[in-house]
Amino acid sequence: MADGLFEMEPAEHHGSRESEEDRASAPVLLVAEAGLGALRCLLKPYGLHCDRVQDGQPIPGSFWGDSEAGLIGDRLLVRDDTPVHSALHEACHYICMSADRRASLHTDAAGDYDEENAVCYLQILLAGRLPGMGRERMMADMDAWGYSFRLGSARDWFERDAGDARAWLVAAGVIDEAGLPTGRLRH
User: Fold this and answer.
1) Are 182 and 174 in contact (CB under 8 A)?
2) How far, in whole angstroms, is CA 74 from its chain's centroid?
3) Which pLDDT tens digit goes with each residue over 21-34?
């Protein structure tokens, strides 16, 4: 981008020898720990580009401000201190929104209740494909950050109360009948 706030980094993967349960007990995972390259690889099939914002700079397109990820068009904007759950949540909004909303996307992903549930479900699924994260860690980070589920935790919601979100994602072509991400945007 022309304003000089963004740095590009070659694709990379950061693995970990810790178990998924060990990672789940640590503070929320940050982009610096997971690696921007890993996010880029995960999101590439969706046509979503990940750009790093320089430390200390505001994140353009961030609805919540602070270290929370931003969305502008087909760009996911993060800093090293952006929580991975925030980056994946915003990325999943991009994946789950309609093409017309995606075309004019700037900051506010909008969406209705059903789409928001689908976004949360998909972010847990995609976390399972992100080295150093995993589903368990994502659910723990969502709970730690204050996501609110009527059953009390992200895990309980995902395992016992998210059938409607799963069905929404299947109907939208974002996951298949087996519950696996298709790598395609909502149709």
Assistant:
1) yes
2) 14
3) 444 445 899 999 99
